[in-house]
Design a protein that fits this description.
elongated; two-stranded antiparallel sheet; 1% strand; mainly alpha
């Protein structure tokens, strides 16, 4: 018995370690590949921070639409977090990971309410912390989505404890309200939670309160809402192009496959479309089955609720975004809801096997094999994508530090799709020493020799070229090795300036970046002779 007890303890410990590994991998991945540079929608927060530091931030700015989203709660969190961290975007990535971890804790509490800790739990952490979801991991702005996820799971966990527990029921409504004013998909917490109200032990009065709170949140959300400012084509497009919506729906649903996107040919879209069709079909079927079974077995409530939450996201995202074309559906942030749908399918199969083992065991084992392939494929793909995003973001830092001299085309590629809006927003970061401007200049400017100081007094714009060259140098280990600092600052700066003034080639894109300022570089070289 003692021997068996030891073996049992060893198995329990091994399972616990394996279950925690994905969380460790997630944060290691984030710290390794996350870079402190605003990208895309992060620049919307820069504008808010500018108003905050200027003392003229108003509620209307926090309530204003961001595409189809009301982001009051995330905006408040962003301002507080970036005030503490000097707008370190990596801090938002960590906060996003913390919200995902809290979601997983809430999910686990629900899971263990009806099941013991066994090997059947092991696939779930590997799905939750999945590397197919690289954008949500390595993009600070996506903290808003993980906040919604946490509010969903927290609300459902409270509903699990509700019924006669009025405090838990009030907390469930509180988290649903937070989700509603965090992003558009936060509104889906209400219909997803309604599954619990309909099939669990809730009174008619509680159901009326839940539905009334949902309607009130929706009315407030859509008061003054502009359906012509949802960030994409008109919603009429979806009505007139149903096939485009269906195609987008299939592609977005297949995102958890983590297929390489380097060759976007017809075969790629066909493969991903069929994967999306399979996942959607399985998702709709499992959600339907779980909802029906919830009447007699409360273990089906969680997968039914998760299925409704995920499927509503895919449907409404396809309606709102199909006009962009299927290429936009390849964004990896959408994988989050595909992951939740996979978890819902797994939980439904798990319960069906418990009831009818012989009938569903084959499907359960087949699905386990598919999950193992998804996890291993996404791990490999995620590491490759993480390295690419890391190098991309480092280049973005270089572009941002030199926003006054780089071309709009580079800003468009590396920072924001509307490059003309970046200079005034980057000026906010520089003015208040935020983001990359918080510490870079004091430690990374190449030596400015007396001849250069005289030149920069006569030609102040040339100092910007020198800053651009300094940034390139400190982001290029090969240049540091080829031109190490030497006792004579004048000789060292002459060597660097000489490299910079050479005619650039496609093999050295940084020289191409400097080439438009060839005349300024010639002046710098003359001053150093």
């Amino acid at each position: 018995m003692k021997k068996n007890g030891v073996l049992s303890n060893l198995s329990w410990g091994a399972l616990l370690i394996l279950s925690l590994l994905p969380i460790l991998f997630y944060f290691t991945y984030l710290l390794a590949y996350g870079v402190n540079v605003p990208f895309g929608d992060d620049w919307e927060i820069v504008s808010l921070m500018g108003h905050f530091y200027a003392g003229n931030l108003r509620f209307a700015q926090l309530w204003a639409q961001h595409n189809e989203n009301r982001m009051l709660i995330p905006y408040l969190l962003f301002i507080g977090l970036y005030r503490l961290t000097s707008f370190n975007v990596k801090a938002a990535m960590v906060a996003s990971g913390i919200f995902l971890t809290l979601s997983f804790i809430c999910f686990s509490l629900i899971f263990f309410k009806r099941r013991s800790f066994s090997w059947k739990f092991l696939p779930l952490p590997f799905l939750f912390f999945n590397f197919a979801d690289t954008q949500n991991i390595l993009w600070g702005f996506q903290m808003a989505w993980q906040l919604v996820s946490f509010c969903f799971f927290a609300s459902v966990a409270c509903l699990e404890e509700s019924g006669e527990n009025k405090t838990a029921f009030a907390a469930a409504i509180f988290f649903a309200v937070l989700a509603s004013f965090s992003s558009f998909q936060g509104l889906f917490v209400w219909p997803a939670g309604l599954i619990y109200l309909l099939f669990n032990h809730f009174s008619l009065g509680q159901r009326k309160i839940w539905i009334s709170a949902a309607l009130l949140s929706g009315i407030i959300y859509f008061t003054g809402f502009s359906f012509h400012s949802t960030g994409g084509p008109s919603l009429i497009y979806s009505l007139t192009h149903p096939l485009a919506v269906l195609r987008y729906l299939l592609i977005i649903s297949g995102g958890i496959s983590a297929l390489p996107t380097r060759t976007l040919d017809l075969s790629f879209f066909i493969t991903r479309g069929f994967l999306g069709l399979f996942i959607l079909g399985a998702g709709f079927l499992s959600t339907f089955v779980a909802t029906l079974e919830s009447k007699k077995d409360k273990a089906f409530l969680l997968p039914a609720s998760m299925g409704v939450f995920s499927l509503l996201f895919f449907i409404f995202a396809s309606i709102g975004r199909a006009g962009f074309g299927v290429g936009q559906a390849l964004e990896t942030r959408y994988s989050l809801y595909g992951i939740f749908l996979l978890i819902a399918i797994y939980l439904t199969l798990l319960e069906k096997v418990k009831v009818s083992k012989e009938k569903f065991l084959f499907f359960f084992r087949t699905f386990l094999i598919a999950l193992a392939l998804q996890v291993t494929t996404s791990l490999r793909w995620g590491i490759m994508e993480g390295k690419n995003r890391f190098l991309f973001a480092l280049k973005g830092q270089e572009i941002l530090l030199n926003y006054l001299v780089v071309s709009p085309k580079l800003i468009l590629i590396y920072l924001y799709p509307r490059p003309n809006e970046i200079p005034p927003r980057a000026a906010i970061l520089e003015k208040y020493h935020l983001s990359v401007f918080s510490s870079w200049q004091s430690r990374s400017l190449l030596p400015v020799t007396p001849p250069l100081k005289k030149l920069f007094k006569r030609r102040p714009d040339d100092w910007l070229i020198w800053r651009l060259l300094s940034t390139i140098y400190f982001y290029r280990p090969d240049l540091q090795e080829k031109y190490p600092p030497i006792p004579s600052e004048r000789e060292f700066t002459r060597e660097i300036a000489s490299w910079a003034s050479k005619h650039g080639t496609q093999n050295d894109p940084d020289q191409m970046l400097l080439f438009p300022w060839k005349n300024s570089l010639s002046e710098i070289n003359r001053a150093l002779r």
